């Protein structure tokens, strides 16, 4: 939306992007930041190019029968655009009659280049969309930040599920979003702006929701131009294809019923959500209309308020999110509006500022099952996750206004005073230091869930999965481990396993320990640290994260069969039951997890992490002793149940030590707790140096 008086895009987004900056003196000190900026920008563009090439390669290497299926349905040799009858005799074509009128002349060229041309053309539209979105970012933002924002925006778009779905299916849903952004931020004059948005509405009717936004923000001529353009395009299509227009607008009620099943998970609209909840008939229709009207009113008012505050891109994103919710069908390739909502600022504290953008990026980039666990109670939320994000952006999320004192200057993150290294010749930490404030709980839970989902996928995909070659390699590595243990005289797996099997109660205890404590104890330690020792929570969480990543590298490089999966070794699997060695997959368990991810043992590694953290931080001696007993009990459990070799525990200890070492390298030594106080309390004598009465300091440049 442009300024009503001058026809220029209002707010800081467009003006700041084109402002000229004074030329700096060509000195050595001035060239260094510019050189670094250029290198960073080139690196980000290279990353965006790699991601784009990767997505194109995925599409073009997919079997022809499985790629560009929608485009093949429209423009292929037997596509609906070739028919002389109605486009909607089948439900395969979901576009408007105007979209069919535009696409029909392109049918032959699209058919001849039914891969390369369409795919690269769509990719160019995505790049243009990213450039316009970066140019429209709200202020305050320096020119340097804007230069770096463009490749980041393109990368996020290429990675997003809507764009990947568009490239895979051969859809046109990027075009309406690009036309709206061009009309709002790129062209001059309200008439031209309205024409572009009107064409977008002719391709995707829910774009008409931008008309109230234009009208209420003083862009009346653009709103009228949008309506006129939409009407003209629709009338033109009706004159050229009267039967198709009647079928689409009257029989199918603006496309309702076209495409896949409306209750499918791909339909992330209110209508689809209500159908998935089991509502049918007039009740569902009435409830959908009421809820849709409420979302439209609330969302439009919020968008108008954001536009008047100068947050034009956020206003466009909110209006698009309203369109996602109120449309009868909103398929995955039509959900780009939700990604644009990432520009909204939420939270007073600097540490809270990351929650909203990270959540939006994850929701629009990852499958819902990776964001939320497979818990029956969460299935309604998981099935409608993108819709929930769209509704939150449109109606609920408290986006900060530029008038808020926290919009430009959030409450800064506080750092502990630096602690000198306890060893000589230790390099200084790479990061400013230990953060004192408690991290955002929702962000932590979200990242923990996504991190664990990634861990499961990488572990499952690690070399040595269910294929026979991987099985042979894993068993060969098992023979190597056994040979080394015999040399070291620590090959106690067979003896320990059979001794435990003969003691029924002990077997039950170790089985329960192996299956339950592995997750329960680390989560409990993290929860207590988060509530009572936030600074130490960050330190411990980072060490655990590095430990897990290093373990994944071990799984990938050295697939290892555990004792229970070594043929002829005579181990009794006390947890999983008898294994059928004549079957390549050893039953159904291999489909759930890679059973050859034994070296290093994360069961022991995580328990050792728990023991060290408790021993270092627990206030009572009996707590410290209990913490150190946990890894000993875990070591006994993993060996007695036949799930790990003794050397697997050694490998787990190595990755734990490396995890704490990397944490030390990044943030420096952990500050010791003062006698009788919290670890977050500053040490005596540091207040004067820090310039604050409580002794807390900020990193360089923090306000």
Distance between the termini: 33 Å
Proportion in β-strands: under 5%
Give the CA-based shape. Answer: globular
Number of beta-strand segments: 0
Structural class category: mainly alpha
**Low-pLDDT regions:** 1-30, 464-468, 587-592, 674-703
- What's the number of structural domains? 2
Helix content: 55-70%
Radius of gyration: 30 Å
Enumerate how many helices there are, as a single number.
Answer: 31
In words, what does this structure look like?
This protein has two domains: 12-17 and 34-396, no CATH class; 449-672. Helix 6 runs antiparallel to helix 8. The radius of gyration is 30 Å and the shape is globular. Mean pLDDT is 80; it is low at 1-30, 464-468, 587-592 and 674-703. It has 31 helices and no strands. By secondary structure, it is mostly helical. 61% of the residues lie in helices and 0% in strands. The protein has helices at residues 12-18, 28-61, 69-75, 97-103, 107-112, 116-135, 143-159, 161-169, 174-186, 190-203, 210-216, 220-240, 242-251, 270-276, 281-308, 312-326, 336-340, 355-365, 368-371, 379-383, 385-396, 405-408, 441-461, 468-488, 493-502, 504-532, 534-557, 602-617, 621-640, 646-667, 687-690. The two termini are 33 Å apart.
